[in-house]
Amino acid sequence: MDADKLLREALLLPADARAKLASELISSLDESDAEADREVEWALEIRRRIDEYDAGLVRAIPGDEFLARLKATVSAGRR
Question: What tens digit of pLDDT does each residue of 12-31 get?
Answer without folding.
Answer: 999 988 988 988 887 777 66
